[in-house]
Amino acid sequence: MPQGIELSNLDKVFWPAHGESPAVSKGDLITYVEEMAPVLLPALRNRPLTVIRYPNGTGGASFYQKDTPKYAPEWIRTITLHATQAKRDVRYVLCNDRRTLRWLANQAAIELHPWLSRVDRLERPDALVFDLDPPEGGFERTVQVALMVRELLRDNGLQAVAKTSGSKGIHVWAPLQRRYDYRTVRRTAERLAARLEAEAGDEVTTEFSKAGRGGRVYLDTGRLAPGAHMASVYSPRARPGAPVSFPVPWEDLSRVTPLDFTIASVPELVRADGDRWKDLMPAPQRLPEDLLAD
Question: Which of 124, 147, 131, 130 is nearest to 189 (CA)?
Fold first, then answer.
């Protein structure tokens, strides 16, 4: 058993063939996470992890898993945190090594969704993020909104990086020094989102209800909360074609589509260019004082 893990059902199809993309198997997923471990693990390390499991592939039933199963190997690192809403303790996986990553893939954990903070300072997120969620088929419009968000952040003294969500949207990520609690960072993000909505209300909305969005791109700041999570950079997504959340330079954003970055194509991109997420990431920043004022 490689690394003490009994791999099973490696030929099971996890992503059916889509267009010109061939089917992707469970074995392909395991190969992907093993090859991507050098760039994937730094994004996951010491962050409480929620996974989305698809035991019968992306065409079957799925479920979110926060609590580590009792049958997990004893070498899996975990952290136990109290979930206020659930009124119980949750034992989160900490995916800090290649063996844990391999075990998760063997458990059909296709999507990897870490917290925005690490265990040594759980109350302090290390980024201000916007999850830009368009209507289905609206990626090009989301690119334009992402560029607006970038400009808004720059006008307020913050630098940011973009990545495809791997689904249909874009994540805009402004790294922060770990000096602010979740409430402060979320309030700042909400203020910025409200400003953009006031300036470009025909294109963007902060309306949570899909029925009330009117075909606009949703500026989601809800990931900025303890227990909330978002798809990690380089995480596969359970969408047709086996796409992956992938960092994109701002100047290239208007020339890409989500399916440019898949389980099949991303390893070669990383072999050629290295860890784009690390290379594109600005230094951690302070929040501007005027955004912090009550």
Answer: 130
The single residue listed with the structure tokens 């808004």 is 152
Q: What is the pLDDT of residues 271-284, one digit of tens each?
A: 999 999 999 999 99
Residues in the chain: 294
- Do the beta carbons of residue 65 and residue 52 sit within 8 Å? yes
Which domains are present in the chain?
Answer: 13-121+227-247+258-278 (3.90.920.10), 127-226+283-291 (3.30.70.3300)
Look at the block and give the residue holding tokens 């368009």: 134
User: At residue 130, what are phi and psi to the nearest 5 degrees?
Assistant: -120, 125
Write the pLDDT tens digit of every residue in 32-57.
Answer: 999 999 999 999 999 999 999 999 99
Three-state DSSP at 129 gives: strand
Alpha helices in 200-281 (DSSP H): 266-273, 276-280
Helix H or strand E segment including 268: helix 266-273
**Crossing angle of helices 26-44 and 266-273, rounded to 10°:** 40
